[in-house]
């Protein structure tokens, strides 16, 4: 999953690759990672988003799309805010100000 988190991954693809049922994959993944497969992928994508926001070369929407949030940018904003308690724009602005102060 680490190598493909930017792609449109679905549970069926993961199960087919691993050769296990959906129930088994969901159960074991949740038990080991303490996250659902979906939440893991979203969090991994958001980690990548944060690092790209610090680089300041792309727009927020371009970053979202490059990290796998292709179909619904609104979901990306909601997920970012839910996890980090600020919007991607606020995160980018805060970190741009920190860099300028140095």
From TrEMBL:
Database matches in Gene3D superfamilies: Homeodomain-like (1.10.10.60)
Entry annotated with the keyword DNA-binding: yes
The entry's keywords: DNA-binding, Transcription, Transcription regulation
UniProt keyword Transcription present: yes
Domain HTH araC/xylS-type: 1-94
Xref: InterPro entries: Homeodomain-like_sf (IPR009057), HTH_AraC (IPR018060)
Domain of life, source organism: Bacteria
Stated name of the protein: Helix-turn-helix transcriptional regulator
Organism: Faecalicoccus acidiformans
């Amino acid at each position: 999953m680490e190598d493909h988190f930017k792609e449109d991954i679905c549970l069926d693809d993961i199960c087919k690759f691993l050769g296990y049922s959906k129930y088994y994959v969901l159960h074991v993944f949740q038990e080991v990672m303490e996250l659902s497969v979906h939440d893991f992928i979203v969090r991994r994508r958001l980690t990548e988003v944060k690092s790209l926001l610090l680089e300041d070369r792309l727009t927020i929407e371009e970053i979202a799309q490059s990290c796998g949030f292709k179909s619904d940018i609104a979901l990306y904003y909601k997920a970012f805010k839910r996890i980090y308690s600020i919007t991607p724009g606020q995160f980018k602005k805060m970190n741009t100000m920190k860099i300028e102060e140095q």
